[in-house]
Design a protein that fits this description.
Elements (H helix, E strand, L loop, with lengths): L1 H10 L6 H14 L27 H4 L2 E5 L5 H19 L3 E5 L3 H9 L5 E3 L2 H10 L4 E6 L8 E2 L1 E6 L14 E4 L5 H13 L4 H4 L2 E4 L3 H9 L5 E5 H9 L8 E6 L3 E2 L3 E3 L5 H12 L16 E3 L6 H9 L4
Parallel strand pairs: 1-2, 1-3, 7-8, 7-9
Antiparallel strand pairs: 3-12, 4-12, 4-13, 5-11, 6-9, 6-10
Length: 321
């Protein structure tokens, strides 16, 4: 009733004395309200009002998500292969997603630690190295191996058949290629085996090189620059399937125990909400997408820090510095 009266008064404002209207207005504001006749006078209650910036998407909700990937193949080739994965994640997350092939393993770790990327695809050893420097980084998922259908892989030592190498002891006096000192399958695990046998590459081999990537190690073997290499079996068999390597010319003379698969790791700056969203998107990823290693993916599985304790034991035996 009072509200109707006040609104009627406002509507007939020109015919009311100013002093009477002001008095009535003061009374009305204490217990009643009505829609003003002018748009500029509308008021939004404080409980529902939005700040000028709240009507815009949060900056981090629109920013590009970037994932650094350790180098497995030639950068341009690896980036092209991973574009469908980037497209899938961009569509699923409704945010731009970019893959950045790191120059080497160390660079991938630095980018993650410094917060210059949101995610990184790191080898088990490089993940542990990163975790030692920032305990807040977190492994999210790892790809399931296409051959084993399990979230693990193996390290192998491959030799050229023309080298005459039949076993690990025959490596003495030969030229050898590792990948990187923080590569699990390309250095830490095979080095632990060599040390176990009393073989010391720095003094027992004719030459030792670090190529920086699995692809470059295989190329060194193919070109005859080395006699043997340490490699990831999945990477090796993948190139055989692609016709890049003739298996009749090479031999696997040693294979490791199963190693926990390579994780996709979140930087400490990534929110718990985004981590969970990423996990779900990757677990739900369709089969057939190329995973970050460049292999045909058959899915992802959740991982946690404790899954990599076996690699910590290897690293105690083989210092990476």
């Amino acid at each position: 009733m009072y509200q109707q009266l006040f609104c009627k008064v406002v509507d007939n404002l020109p015919r009311i004395k100013a002093s009477f209207w002001l008095a009535l207005l003061a009374i009305a504001l204490l217990g009643t309200s009505c829609s003003a006749t002018s748009e500029s006078s509308s008021v939004i209650p404080a409980s529902t009002a939005k700040s000028p910036s709240s009507s815009k998407p949060k900056q981090d909700e629109q920013a590009t998500i970037t994932m650094a990937v350790i180098p497995w193949q030639v950068s341009s080739e690896q980036e092209q292969k991973l574009q469908p994965l980037a497209d899938y994640l961009s569509k699923t997350l409704k945010r731009p997603f970019k893959v950045e092939i790191a120059k080497n393993y160390e660079t991938a770790v630095e980018l993650l630690i410094q917060g210059k990327v949101d995610l990184a695809y790191l080898g088990p050893s490089s993940y542990i190295a990163a975790r030692l420097r920032d305990s807040q980084i977190e492994p999210l998922v790892s790809p399931i191996n296409q051959d084993t259908k399990r979230p693990w892989y193996t390290s192998v030592i491959i030799t050229s058949k023309t080298s005459g190498i039949q076993n690990l002891q025959n490596l003495k006096g030969k030229r050898f290629a590792f990948v990187s000192k923080i590569s699990a399958s390309g250095y830490v695990v095979p080095m632990a085996k060599l040390q176990e046998l009393g073989i010391h590459p720095e003094k027992d081999f004719a030459a030792v090189i670090f190529t920086g990537s699995h692809d470059k190690s295989k190329q060194a073997l193919i070109k005859g620059e080395v006699d043997a290499i340490a490699d990831d079996r999945r990477s090796y068999t993948g190139q055989i399937k692609q016709g890049k390597i003739d298996p009749t010319k090479y031999s696997i003379i040693w294979e490791s125990v199963p190693l926990p698969s390579i994780p996709i790791v979140a930087a400490s700056k990534v929110s718990a909400e985004l981590k969970n969203t990423l996990k779900q998107a990757l677990i739900d990823a369709p089969a057939g997408l190329i995973d970050p290693s460049g292999a045909v993916g058959v899915g992802y599985t959740l991982v946690q820090d404790g899954d990599y304790d076996i690699m910590r034991e290897f690293q105690k035996r083989v210092p990476t510095k």
